[in-house]
Write a structure and sequence with these properties.
alpha+beta; Beta-lactamase; 2 domains; three-stranded antiparallel β-sheet; 5 helices; 27% helix; cell cycle; membrane; cell division; Beta-lactam/transpept-like
Amino acid sequence: EVSADIREYMGMSVTSGTSTKAKVQGYSMGGKTGTAEKLTEKEKGNYLVSFIGFAPLDKPEMLVYVVVDTPNVESQASSSYAQYLAQAIMSEVLPYMNVYQDEKAEGATVLWEGFYGVPKFTDIVEDGVSNPYGTVLDQGYGDGDPLESEEDLNDEYSDGITNEQAGIDEDDDSYEDAYDTEELDQDEEE
């Protein structure tokens, strides 16, 4: 009974309260925002914002907890950013998990316009500009190209820093162990 009451209150937070930006159309859901100011002697005004949400409301099958530490925006105390991220995650994952819509959708789920600020590389290429690592000819989802070697597993530019900057010694045996695929191949054969 207590659980049902709390789910109801958290549902109201998503439909008409402080969590409306997390709503995924077609799903009953509940959620709660959180905001905490990080107090230090040196500076004030830095926040940690969060959102926890679940769906469907009556029999939850998915729970997501998003925390944004010191958002790089003017209004840090707003939990909107955590809600937008949770909405994007849930709108993708719920159908993938075969969680079916349980209420009538009132329009489409519109993701936060900030998500559209990242340019597609194909658009850039069409404008005659290429990135510093080569020209992107196509972009999309799929299986991708097979790896040519184990070295491809650690593209030093994928995270923006080199192995040396990250303190990784490629000559160290532990580095080799981390990329030892022979064990994985043996497990698959058994």
